[in-house]
Design a protein that fits this description.
The complex is a heterodimer. Helix content of chain A is about 35%, strand content about 30%. By secondary structure, chain A is of the alpha/beta class. In chain A, strand 7, helix 6 and strand 8 form a beta-alpha-beta unit. In chain A, helix 5 packs parallel to helix 6. The two termini of chain A are about 30 Å apart. By secondary structure, chain B is mainly alpha-helical. Chain B is about 75% helix and about 0% strand.
Chain lengths: ~300, ~250
């Protein structure tokens, strides 16, 4: 069953110079999956999420949440969704408990339900012990988790999170990932936007790469990776003159004394590593990453 | 009967007042202190304290009406709480009224303080208390409406700009017209008192408490003007404001 569905969604921001933020985005997110919109800054991810979450009207096209039209049936849509906006900040005087208590009340839950859900949400994000501490005295990661907890406590079916881990350190980010995956295990549907490749690769059931308002690839992580002809990467480090000897055609990306060389198969990668080691260079082979494919797709390089 | 919009209004008012009250209770004093400052000058320079107390009551609801409708709405946009609430099954009117209502709750101790003093010195007879509340509520609604017009029409202005506008507007509406001073001071320019919702409210309170003599038709006109300011500002805001961006 589809939780979210968009058909040829177009958004043009009016102005002296109209900007096309979405140029016909068609996507579907299944119930109970974590779907990621991956794209560079300004790709249209936030615009898409804001339209789906009934905050912004599309210029053309249609979008549905559980079959309800986001343009005409926004009240019904809002009963099913909860949103963490991009760059959301906490009120200094609010505590994590305030976030988890008042916001679900606005969704129509009773005080008893809210207290139960707030406790469960705060424990899930490991903020129970800090529940009565004003957000101003919490770390950035804790504040973000307080907001995420408010969304958890809402008990909405579809959670929409716009770059929820942006600005968090690796430890805090992984905690959020674990929470999101746990929610999916519980049957929630999550629409996430990010520009962090590892995040998309680690937690997505499916993802779409969006660039300049258009979806340029979508599917499971492996499907996206399969779009690249090269399947392996070898990182070589050492004297640049020596590295040049290893270069073969254009499948090389240079970063100072390091190079990433992309290869079609494992044997080719192993041979390259052997050659590099013989030359006294450091070399490491690995399968290509989502980031490699993303850069090729978004950077306009041939996959 | 669907009471959810009313319930939501109260939840938003609680959300916007109780956490601040719990963690920053001194704000209760600050709210009253701003309005009380002119009273000190009236005491020192021998002004009419009874007029000043009415001014302090009007000033309290006016400041918070303007500040909430401009500063709180703008801050909610800035921290993105508004975006979270838009995506909830909450009516925009519940949100707006809740935001405006929150500081009114916080101002209750100050209003009570000024009222008690005014009653104690005989500037506010008990029979006028009902009229006082009606005038203050309409004044608060009118000022909130003016504030919502500003925050709606200048929605792209920065938080800092809007904060300054809010303060200038608040001070202008409270200290320029005869809110703290008698209308008689204006002489032939007395009609100015009828332009501003703040001086209309102050005039009505004074009329009902015997501090100002106004013929019945002037009292009716003042009520009508106060009411009209509120209604017009609500209409103007509803024409321009959009809960969901286009």
């Amino acid at each position: 069953m589809e939780a979210i569905n968009s058909v040829e969604l177009v958004k043009i921001y009016d102005g002296k110079k109209p900007i096309e933020a979405l140029g016909g985005v068609s996507l579907s997110v299944n119930k109970g999956e974590l779907f990621t919109l991956l794209g560079p800054n300004g790709a249209g991810k936030t615009t898409f999420l804001r339209i789906i979450s009934t905050q912004l009207l599309p210029t053309k096209g249609e979008a549905y949440v559980f079959g309800y039209d986001v343009t005409r049936e926004e009240k019904k849509v809002r009963k099913h969704i909860a949103v963490v906006p991009q760059d959301v900040q906490t009120y200094g005087n609010y505590t994590p408990w305030d976030y988890c208590y008042y916001f679900p009340l606005l969704r129509g839950a009773t005080k008893e339900q809210v207290k139960e859900r707030a406790e469960s949400a705060l424990k899930a994000v490991e903020l129970w012990d800090l529940r009565n501490r004003p957000c101003v005295s919490l770390s950035g990661g804790e504040r973000r988790r307080a907001i995420i907890a408010s969304v958890l406590a809402s008990d909405a079916d579809v959670l929409m999170l716009d770059e929820p881990t942006s600005g968090l350190d690796a430890v805090a980010r992984r905690k959020v990932w674990a929470i999101l995956r746990e929610l999916v295990e519980q049957g929630k549907t999550i629409l996430l936007t990010t520009h962090i490749m590892e995040e998309a690769e680690m937690i997505s059931d499916r993802l779409a790469i969006i660039n300049k308002g258009r979806v340029i690839a979508q599917g499971k992580v492996e499907d996206i990776k399969s779009l690249a002809k090269e399947k392996y990467r070898v990182v070589v480090e050492g004297n640049s003159q020596d590295i040049k000897l290893l270069q073969n055609d254009n499948r090389v990306v240079k970063f100072g004394g390091k190079q990433i060389i992309y290869l079609y198969d494992a044997n080719e990668a192993v041979e390259l590593v052997k050659s590099a080691l013989k030359m006294g260079l450091k070399a490491e082979a690995a399968p290509i990453t989502l980031e490699d494919v993303f850069v090729k797709l978004v950077g306009g390089e041939e996959a | 009967m669907n009471l959810k919009p009313v319930k939501d209004t109260l939840i938003i008012a609680a959300l916007k007042s109780i956490p601040d009250l719990k963690r920053n209770p001194l704000m209760l004093i600050v709210i009253g202190l701003i309005s009380a400052i002119p009273l000190f000058f009236l005491l020192i320079f021998g002004g009419q304290i009874s007029y000043g107390l009415v001014g302090a009551l009007v000033s309290t609801v006016s400041f918070i009406g303007i500040a909430a409708a401009i500063q709180d709405i703008t801050y909610d946009r800035y921290v993105k709480i508004r975006e979270m609430i838009i995506a909830m099954p909450v009516h925009p009117v519940s949100y707006a009224v809740g935001v405006a209502l929150a500081p009114l709750i916080l101002s209750i101790p100050s209003l009570a303080f000024f009222m008690i003093i005014a009653m104690w010195i005989g500037a506010l007879p008990p029979s006028s208390v009902g009229w006082l509340f009606a005038s203050l509520i309409l004044c608060w609604a009118a000022l909130s409406g003016i504030g919502f017009i500003v925050s709606t029409y200048l929605r792209k202005a920065s938080v800092y700009t809007l904060n300054n506008i809010s303060n200038i507007l608040g001070l202008g509406l409270i200290f320029m017209p005869p809110v703290y001073y008698p209308e008689e001071f204006l002489g032939e320019l007395g009609w100015i008192a009828m332009i501003f919702p703040t001086s209309n409210a102050a005039g009505l309170i004074r009329a009902y408490s015997g501090l100002l003599e106004l013929p019945p038709e002037m009292i009716a006109l003042r009520w009508a003007l106060l009411f009209a300011t509120t209604v017009i500002s609500i209409i103007v805001v509803s024409l321009k404001s959009k809960w969901r961006e286009a």
